[in-house]
Design goal:
Blueprint lengths: L1 E10 L5 E4 L1 H11 L4 E7 L4 E6 L3 H14 L17 H10 L2 E7 L2 E2 L6 E6 L5 E10 L1
Antiparallel strand pairs: 1-8, 2-7, 3-5, 3-8, 4-7, 5-6
The structure holds zinc ion (ZN).
């Protein structure tokens, strides 16, 4: 069995953003040489997400509005976690949007459903963060 591991680095200048990382994951898959197997992609930080959905700007705006309703950034004093930090909302948003995705690899390709793409969700940007890509298979 082949095993491949790589870290993707991000430094998002804004507090929040959604970035389509499918091309980077696809590049990892080609580097791995795996034709049949699984790829795991997970955020290595507790204020960022990796999730699968549609690459459609209206939907991404809707996520932003929905997440701000669920866990508004302001006022930061509403959260017990805040004090030294101001990112309690980012932890909550990460929980909702998820930590990782797993995608099947079939015939050397990411075996997606219709319109599926992989995204990095940043909820507390302005610093360097990592995503791990782990690929196993033959
Ligand atoms: Zn925190």
């Amino acid at each position: 069995m082949k095993s491949f591991r790589k870290e993707l680095w991000f430094n998002v200048p804004t507090r929040r953003a959604f970035i389509n990382i499918t091309p980077q994951v696809d590049k990892c898959l080609r580097e791995s040489g795996v034709r049949e197997g699984l790829v795991l992609v997970n955020a290595m930080h507790i204020t960022a997400s990796v999730f699968i959905n549609d690459d459609e700007s209206g939907l991404h705006h809707d996520y932003e509005v929905w997440l701000e309703k669920l866990a508004p950034h302001e006022p930061v004093s509403q959260y017990r976690h805040n004090g030294y930090e101001d990112n309690a909302d980012a932890h909550l948003k990460r929980q909702v949007m998820g930590r990782e995705v797993v995608v099947a690899i079939t015939d050397g390709k990411l075996d997606f459903g219709t319109w599926e793409q992989i995204f990095y969700g940043e909820f507390d940007g302005g610093r360097k963060k990592r995503v791990m890509v782990k690929i196993i298979g033959e």
